[in-house]
Amino acid sequence: xxxxxxxxxxxxxxxxxxxxxxxxxxxxxxxxxxxxxxxxxxxxxxxxxxxxxxxxxxxxxxxxxxxxxxxxxxxxxxxxxxxxxxxxxxxxxxxxxxxxxxxxxxxxxxxxxxxxxxxxxxxxxxxxxxxxxxxxxxxxxxxxxxxxxxxxxxxxxxxxxxxxxxxxxxxxxxxxxxxxxxxxxxxxxxxxxxxxxxxxxxxxxxxxxxxxxxxxxxxxxxxxxxxxxxxxxxxxxxxxxxxxxxxxxxxxxxxxxxxxxxxxxxxxxxxxxxxxxxxxxxxxxxxxxxxxxxxxxxxxxxxxxxxxxxxxx
Length: 313
Ligand SMILES: O=C(O)/C=C(\CC(=O)C(=O)O)C(=O)O
Prior knowledge:
Blueprint: E1 34-38, H1 62-72, E2 76-80, H2 90-97, E3 103-107, H3 115-124, E4 126-132, H4 143-154, E5 159-163, H5 169-177, E6 183-185, H6 200-211, E7 215-218, H7 222-225, H8 244-253, E8 258-259, H9 276-280, H10 283-286, H11 290-305
Parallel strand pairs: 1-2, 2-3, 3-4, 4-5, 5-6, 6-7, 7-8
The structure holds (1E)-4-oxobut-1-ene-1,2,4-tricarboxylic acid.
(1E)-4-oxobut-1-ene-1,2,4-tricarboxylic acid binds at residues 39, 82-84, 132, 137, 163, 186, 263, 267-268.
Protein backbone atom coordinates (compact mmCIF):
# COMPACT_ATOMS: atom_id res chain seq x y z
CA UNK A 1 0.00 0.00 0.00
CA UNK A 2 1.27 3.44 -0.90
CA UNK A 3 2.57 5.51 2.03
CA UNK A 4 1.06 8.95 2.63
CA UNK A 5 2.35 12.47 2.35
CA UNK A 6 0.36 14.51 4.84
CA UNK A 7 -0.40 18.22 4.67
CA UNK A 8 -0.96 20.01 1.42
CA UNK A 9 1.54 17.96 -0.57
CA UNK A 10 1.61 15.46 -3.40
CA UNK A 11 4.45 13.00 -3.81
CA UNK A 12 6.76 13.39 -6.78
CA UNK A 13 5.56 11.23 -9.69
CA UNK A 14 7.13 7.78 -9.55
CA UNK A 15 8.19 8.19 -5.92
CA UNK A 16 9.26 4.90 -4.33
CA UNK A 17 8.17 4.53 -0.70
CA UNK A 18 10.49 3.00 1.89
CA UNK A 19 10.30 -0.75 2.39
CA UNK A 20 7.69 -2.21 4.73
CA UNK A 21 8.63 -5.15 6.94
CA UNK A 22 12.40 -5.37 6.47
CA UNK A 23 14.17 -8.64 7.24
CA UNK A 24 15.95 -9.15 10.53
CA UNK A 25 19.63 -8.84 9.54
CA UNK A 26 21.71 -12.00 9.68
CA UNK A 27 24.76 -9.88 10.41
CA UNK A 28 24.76 -8.98 14.07
CA UNK A 29 25.77 -5.36 14.50
CA UNK A 30 28.34 -4.70 17.24
CA UNK A 31 26.93 -3.29 20.48
CA UNK A 32 26.49 0.47 20.24
CA UNK A 33 26.37 0.60 16.42
CA UNK A 34 25.43 3.94 14.86
CA UNK A 35 23.37 4.42 11.71
CA UNK A 36 25.33 7.51 10.67
CA UNK A 37 23.27 8.55 7.65
CA UNK A 38 19.50 8.61 7.66
CA UNK A 39 16.73 11.17 7.25
CA UNK A 40 13.28 12.10 8.50
CA UNK A 41 10.67 13.47 6.12
CA UNK A 42 7.97 15.57 7.74
CA UNK A 43 5.36 14.42 8.45
CA UNK A 44 4.33 17.14 6.04
CA UNK A 45 1.31 18.20 8.10
CA UNK A 46 3.59 18.92 11.07
CA UNK A 47 6.84 19.90 9.38
CA UNK A 48 6.03 21.23 5.91
CA UNK A 49 8.39 20.53 3.02
CA UNK A 50 10.40 23.53 1.81
CA UNK A 51 9.04 25.64 -1.06
CA UNK A 52 12.41 25.41 -2.88
CA UNK A 53 12.54 21.57 -2.72
CA UNK A 54 13.28 19.52 -5.84
CA UNK A 55 11.20 16.51 -4.77
CA UNK A 56 8.27 15.74 -2.48
CA UNK A 57 8.70 12.46 -0.58
CA UNK A 58 6.29 10.27 1.33
CA UNK A 59 6.38 11.05 5.04
CA UNK A 60 9.00 9.19 7.06
CA UNK A 61 8.65 10.12 10.70
CA UNK A 62 11.00 9.92 13.67
CA UNK A 63 8.79 7.15 15.12
CA UNK A 64 9.27 5.06 11.99
CA UNK A 65 13.00 5.79 11.98
CA UNK A 66 13.43 4.75 15.59
CA UNK A 67 11.36 1.60 15.09
CA UNK A 68 13.71 0.68 12.23
CA UNK A 69 16.76 1.42 14.41
CA UNK A 70 15.54 -1.01 17.03
CA UNK A 71 14.53 -3.66 14.50
CA UNK A 72 17.92 -3.61 12.77
CA UNK A 73 19.90 -3.53 16.03
CA UNK A 74 21.39 -0.05 15.87
CA UNK A 75 21.82 1.91 19.11
CA UNK A 76 21.94 5.42 17.66
CA UNK A 77 21.27 7.54 14.58
CA UNK A 78 22.73 10.53 12.83
CA UNK A 79 19.84 12.33 11.16
CA UNK A 80 21.01 14.28 8.13
CA UNK A 81 18.97 17.21 6.88
CA UNK A 82 17.48 16.33 3.49
CA UNK A 83 17.05 18.93 0.78
CA UNK A 84 13.26 18.54 0.72
CA UNK A 85 13.29 20.47 4.02
CA UNK A 86 15.70 23.15 2.76
CA UNK A 87 17.27 25.07 5.66
CA UNK A 88 14.23 24.49 7.87
CA UNK A 89 15.74 22.05 10.35
CA UNK A 90 12.68 21.60 12.57
CA UNK A 91 11.87 17.99 11.66
CA UNK A 92 15.48 16.88 12.13
CA UNK A 93 15.83 18.85 15.38
CA UNK A 94 12.57 17.42 16.70
CA UNK A 95 13.84 13.92 15.95
CA UNK A 96 17.09 14.59 17.82
CA UNK A 97 15.33 16.16 20.80
CA UNK A 98 12.93 13.27 21.22
CA UNK A 99 15.58 10.55 20.88
CA UNK A 100 16.72 10.59 24.51
CA UNK A 101 20.26 11.42 23.43
CA UNK A 102 20.40 8.61 20.89
CA UNK A 103 20.41 10.86 17.82
CA UNK A 104 22.67 13.59 16.57
CA UNK A 105 21.93 15.83 13.62
CA UNK A 106 23.53 17.39 10.57
CA UNK A 107 21.84 20.65 9.56
CA UNK A 108 21.55 22.86 6.52
CA UNK A 109 22.03 26.52 7.40
CA UNK A 110 22.17 29.83 5.59
CA UNK A 111 24.70 32.55 6.24
CA UNK A 112 21.91 34.62 7.86
CA UNK A 113 21.69 32.22 10.83
CA UNK A 114 22.49 33.93 14.13
CA UNK A 115 24.98 32.70 16.72
CA UNK A 116 22.10 32.09 19.12
CA UNK A 117 20.33 29.89 16.54
CA UNK A 118 23.53 27.93 15.94
CA UNK A 119 23.86 27.39 19.67
CA UNK A 120 20.24 26.18 19.81
CA UNK A 121 21.02 23.64 17.10
CA UNK A 122 24.07 22.54 19.06
CA UNK A 123 22.01 22.11 22.21
CA UNK A 124 19.55 19.96 20.25
CA UNK A 125 22.38 17.65 19.16
CA UNK A 126 23.51 19.05 15.81
CA UNK A 127 27.20 18.46 15.16
CA UNK A 128 27.62 19.28 11.48
CA UNK A 129 26.36 21.15 8.45
CA UNK A 130 25.77 19.66 5.02
CA UNK A 131 26.91 21.32 1.80
CA UNK A 132 25.17 19.75 -1.17
CA UNK A 133 26.59 20.04 -4.69
CA UNK A 134 24.33 17.53 -6.42
CA UNK A 135 22.74 19.69 -9.07
CA UNK A 136 19.43 17.82 -9.28
CA UNK A 137 18.90 18.44 -5.53
CA UNK A 138 19.83 22.06 -4.87
CA UNK A 139 20.38 25.48 -6.39
CA UNK A 140 23.90 26.83 -6.39
CA UNK A 141 25.19 28.54 -3.22
CA UNK A 142 28.26 30.77 -3.60
CA UNK A 143 31.42 29.24 -2.14
CA UNK A 144 32.31 32.34 -0.10
CA UNK A 145 28.99 31.96 1.70
CA UNK A 146 29.70 28.30 2.46
CA UNK A 147 33.22 29.07 3.63
CA UNK A 148 31.86 31.71 5.98
CA UNK A 149 29.44 29.16 7.44
CA UNK A 150 32.26 26.60 7.76
CA UNK A 151 34.40 29.05 9.68
CA UNK A 152 31.58 29.80 12.09
CA UNK A 153 30.62 26.20 12.76
CA UNK A 154 34.28 25.23 13.21
CA UNK A 155 34.18 27.23 16.42
CA UNK A 156 31.47 24.94 17.74
CA UNK A 157 33.61 21.88 16.99
CA UNK A 158 31.25 20.80 14.18
CA UNK A 159 32.21 19.24 10.85
CA UNK A 160 31.09 19.72 7.25
CA UNK A 161 29.35 16.94 5.31
CA UNK A 162 29.76 17.26 1.54
CA UNK A 163 27.62 15.60 -1.10
CA UNK A 164 28.78 15.64 -4.70
CA UNK A 165 29.13 13.45 -7.80
CA UNK A 166 32.54 11.97 -8.70
CA UNK A 167 32.84 13.91 -11.97
CA UNK A 168 32.63 17.19 -10.04
CA UNK A 169 35.50 16.49 -7.62
CA UNK A 170 38.23 18.16 -9.74
CA UNK A 171 36.27 21.40 -9.89
CA UNK A 172 35.42 21.32 -6.16
CA UNK A 173 38.87 20.21 -4.97
CA UNK A 174 40.22 23.64 -4.01
CA UNK A 175 37.09 24.51 -2.07
CA UNK A 176 36.97 21.20 -0.23
CA UNK A 177 40.64 21.30 0.71
CA UNK A 178 40.23 24.84 2.09
CA UNK A 179 37.57 23.78 4.61
CA UNK A 180 38.81 24.31 8.18
CA UNK A 181 36.96 21.38 9.78
CA UNK A 182 36.69 17.63 9.57
CA UNK A 183 35.05 16.96 6.20
CA UNK A 184 32.77 13.94 5.74
CA UNK A 185 32.01 12.81 2.19
CA UNK A 186 28.62 11.28 1.53
CA UNK A 187 28.60 7.91 -0.24
CA UNK A 188 32.29 7.95 -1.30
CA UNK A 189 31.63 10.92 -3.56
CA UNK A 190 29.27 8.80 -5.67
CA UNK A 191 31.74 6.87 -7.81
CA UNK A 192 30.63 5.45 -11.14
CA UNK A 193 31.17 1.80 -10.21
CA UNK A 194 30.99 0.72 -13.83
CA UNK A 195 34.40 2.36 -14.26
CA UNK A 196 37.55 0.54 -13.10
CA UNK A 197 38.37 0.87 -9.42
CA UNK A 198 41.96 1.68 -10.40
CA UNK A 199 40.90 4.28 -12.97
CA UNK A 200 41.59 8.01 -12.64
CA UNK A 201 38.20 8.95 -11.16
CA UNK A 202 38.32 6.78 -8.05
CA UNK A 203 42.08 7.32 -7.78
CA UNK A 204 41.38 11.02 -7.37
CA UNK A 205 38.96 10.31 -4.54
CA UNK A 206 41.50 8.09 -2.77
CA UNK A 207 44.13 10.80 -3.24
CA UNK A 208 41.71 13.31 -1.71
CA UNK A 209 41.46 11.15 1.42
CA UNK A 210 45.12 10.17 1.45
CA UNK A 211 46.44 13.71 1.24
CA UNK A 212 43.91 15.20 3.65
CA UNK A 213 43.68 13.45 7.01
CA UNK A 214 40.68 15.60 7.95
CA UNK A 215 38.59 13.94 5.21
CA UNK A 216 36.32 11.06 6.17
CA UNK A 217 33.91 9.06 4.01
CA UNK A 218 30.57 7.38 4.40
CA UNK A 219 30.78 4.03 2.64
CA UNK A 220 27.01 3.96 2.34
CA UNK A 221 24.42 3.77 -0.42
CA UNK A 222 25.38 0.71 -2.45
CA UNK A 223 21.72 0.65 -3.53
CA UNK A 224 22.23 4.08 -5.14
CA UNK A 225 25.60 3.36 -6.71
CA UNK A 226 25.12 -0.19 -7.97
CA UNK A 227 24.61 -0.77 -11.68
CA UNK A 228 24.50 -4.56 -11.83
CA UNK A 229 23.10 -5.45 -8.37
CA UNK A 230 21.86 -7.90 -7.32
CA UNK A 231 19.30 -5.91 -5.36
CA UNK A 232 18.90 -6.21 -1.58
CA UNK A 233 15.56 -7.95 -1.91
CA UNK A 234 14.14 -11.45 -1.44
CA UNK A 235 16.77 -12.61 1.06
CA UNK A 236 19.75 -11.68 -1.15
CA UNK A 237 22.91 -12.10 0.93
CA UNK A 238 25.38 -10.87 -1.68
CA UNK A 239 23.75 -7.65 -2.83
CA UNK A 240 25.40 -4.89 -4.89
CA UNK A 241 28.60 -6.82 -5.64
CA UNK A 242 29.83 -4.13 -8.03
CA UNK A 243 30.05 -1.62 -5.15
CA UNK A 244 31.91 -3.95 -2.78
CA UNK A 245 35.49 -3.40 -4.10
CA UNK A 246 35.09 0.39 -3.93
CA UNK A 247 33.73 0.51 -0.40
CA UNK A 248 36.09 -2.17 0.84
CA UNK A 249 39.09 -0.30 -0.53
CA UNK A 250 38.08 2.81 1.42
CA UNK A 251 37.37 0.87 4.63
CA UNK A 252 40.67 -0.99 4.48
CA UNK A 253 42.82 2.00 3.62
CA UNK A 254 41.15 4.48 5.98
CA UNK A 255 39.67 2.35 8.78
CA UNK A 256 39.59 5.24 11.25
CA UNK A 257 37.80 7.67 8.92
CA UNK A 258 34.79 5.75 7.64
CA UNK A 259 31.13 5.77 8.62
CA UNK A 260 28.14 3.72 7.53
CA UNK A 261 24.44 4.53 7.34
CA UNK A 262 21.26 3.04 5.96
CA UNK A 263 20.21 6.22 4.11
CA UNK A 264 16.65 5.35 5.14
CA UNK A 265 14.10 6.33 3.76
CA UNK A 266 16.21 6.30 0.58
CA UNK A 267 15.05 9.45 -1.23
CA UNK A 268 14.85 9.51 -5.00
CA UNK A 269 15.62 5.90 -5.77
CA UNK A 270 14.21 5.14 -9.19
CA UNK A 271 14.79 1.45 -9.70
CA UNK A 272 13.87 -0.38 -6.49
CA UNK A 273 13.56 0.13 -2.75
CA UNK A 274 15.97 -2.05 -0.76
CA UNK A 275 15.06 -4.20 2.23
CA UNK A 276 16.96 -2.40 5.01
CA UNK A 277 17.66 -5.67 6.84
CA UNK A 278 19.50 -6.98 3.77
CA UNK A 279 21.38 -3.67 3.48
CA UNK A 280 22.81 -4.33 6.94
CA UNK A 281 23.91 -7.74 5.64
CA UNK A 282 26.00 -5.86 3.05
CA UNK A 283 28.29 -4.49 5.80
CA UNK A 284 30.51 -7.56 6.36
CA UNK A 285 31.27 -7.64 2.61
CA UNK A 286 32.98 -4.24 2.89
CA UNK A 287 34.26 -4.49 6.47
CA UNK A 288 35.17 -8.16 6.73
CA UNK A 289 36.77 -8.31 10.19
CA UNK A 290 35.32 -7.60 13.65
CA UNK A 291 37.99 -4.90 14.12
CA UNK A 292 36.97 -3.05 10.96
CA UNK A 293 33.29 -3.42 11.85
CA UNK A 294 33.86 -1.99 15.32
CA UNK A 295 35.63 1.08 13.90
CA UNK A 296 33.13 1.64 11.10
CA UNK A 297 30.00 1.21 13.15
CA UNK A 298 30.93 2.25 16.68
CA UNK A 299 34.32 3.86 17.33
CA UNK A 300 34.39 6.32 14.41
CA UNK A 301 30.83 7.66 14.66
CA UNK A 302 31.13 7.90 18.45
CA UNK A 303 34.33 9.93 18.12
CA UNK A 304 32.68 12.33 15.70
CA UNK A 305 29.19 12.65 17.19
CA UNK A 306 29.43 11.64 20.88
CA UNK A 307 33.07 12.41 21.73
CA UNK A 308 32.31 12.64 25.46
CA UNK A 309 31.01 9.08 25.48
CA UNK A 310 33.53 7.57 23.04
CA UNK A 311 35.89 4.85 24.29
CA UNK A 312 39.01 6.46 25.66
CA UNK A 313 37.34 9.89 25.99
O1 LIG B 1 19.87 10.64 0.95
C1 LIG B 1 20.85 10.89 0.28
O2 LIG B 1 21.94 10.85 0.79
C2 LIG B 1 20.74 11.17 -1.11
C3 LIG B 1 19.83 11.92 -1.78
C4 LIG B 1 18.91 12.87 -1.22
C5 LIG B 1 19.52 13.90 -0.41
O3 LIG B 1 20.66 13.83 -0.06
C6 LIG B 1 18.74 15.08 0.01
O4 LIG B 1 17.62 15.28 -0.44
O5 LIG B 1 19.27 15.84 0.82
C7 LIG B 1 19.81 11.75 -3.24
O6 LIG B 1 20.84 11.33 -3.80
O7 LIG B 1 18.77 12.03 -3.83
